[in-house]
Design brief:
Helix content of chain B: under 10%
Structural class of chain A: mainly beta
Strand content of chain B: over 45%
Order of helices and strands of chain B: EEEEEEEEEE
Order of helices and strands of chain A: EEEEEEEEEEE
Distance between the termini of chain A: 36 Å
Largest sheet of chain B: 6 strands, mixed
Number of helices of chain A: 0
Number of strands of chain B: 10
Oligomer: heterodimer
Largest sheet of chain A: 7 strands, mixed
Structural class of chain B: mainly beta
Shape of chain A: elongated
Distance between the termini of chain B: 23 Å
Largest interface: A-B, 28 and 27 residues
Number of strands of chain A: 11
Radius of gyration of chain B: 14 Å
Number of helices of chain B: 0
């Protein structure tokens, strides 16, 4: 298994440009999410998905769109990049156990996309 | 411990000593807590987790303690090694089902030879 794969690893955009950060996982995990990490800070949740066709907003969703058409892929779109979106972006996935006392597995993270907006 | 600000709290320990990293969490309703290790240029890597119905959990060389009364979490690393040098994050799950993690700021652990 490759785990969680993010592309590209680095990207530089000009203000106003759009782009899509790709995330794919091959573990058949239902749950996927996007976080951003700014210098000296912990990660903050942007958007998440509990399964194909279902997405929801996290703590800092403004300026970002997501979709989940398949279990494997969860792309993050920046429609009009702003300097405030300069950050490192991490995609993560997890599964949920079944049964009466179901719970989520720990998140598996990709290695991130470092985005600079000038 | 972890705190708000642009400068990461740091902890320096001698190789072979035990390390204790502390974390204060915010939400009394959080039911799941996780410690992650992040090395430079990589994504966070899962170390150990604990559910709110427990107060201690042990792994290989690591122990997590949870004190719900004061909303405090700690990570103990026994016999620290150079490979333990990294930034350590605590995270709490506030999603009550969906996994919506809130991360602490992180603590940089440095191992002195």
């Amino acid at each position: 298994n490759a785990g969680v794969t993010q592309t590209p690893k680095f990207q530089v955009l000009k203000t106003g440009q759009s782009m899509t950060l790709q995330c794919a996982q091959d573990m058949n995990h239902e749950y996927m999410s996007w976080y951003r990490q700014d210098p000296g800070m912990g990660l903050r949740l942007i958007h998440y998905s509990v399964g194909a066709g279902i997405t929801d907003q996290g703590e800092v969703p403004n300026g970002y769109n997501v979709s989940r058409s398949t279990t494997e892929d969860f792309p993050l779109r920046l429609l009009s990049a702003a300097p405030s979106q300069t950050s490192v972006y991490f995609c993560a996935s997890s599964y949920r156990t079944g049964g009466k006392s179901s719970y989520n597995s720990p998140l598996h993270f990709g290695n991130g996309t470092r985005l600079t907006v000038t | 411990g972890e705190s708000v600000g642009l400068h990461l709290p740091t902890l320096s320990v001698q190789e072979g000593d035990n390390s204790i990293i502390n974390c204060a969490y915010s939400n009394s309703a959080s039911d799941y807590f996780i410690w992650y290790k992040q090395e430079s240029g990589k994504g966070p890597q899962f170390i150990i987790d604990i559910r709110s119905n427990m107060d201690k959990r042990q792994g290989q060389r690591v122990t997590v303690l949870l004190n719900k009364t004061v909303k405090h979490l700690s990570l103990q690393i026994a016999a620290t090694q150079p490979g333990d040098s990294a930034v350590y994050f605590c995270a709490e799950n506030t999603g009550q089902g969906a996994q919506k993690l809130v991360f602490g700021q992180g603590t940089r652990l440095t191992i002195n030879p």
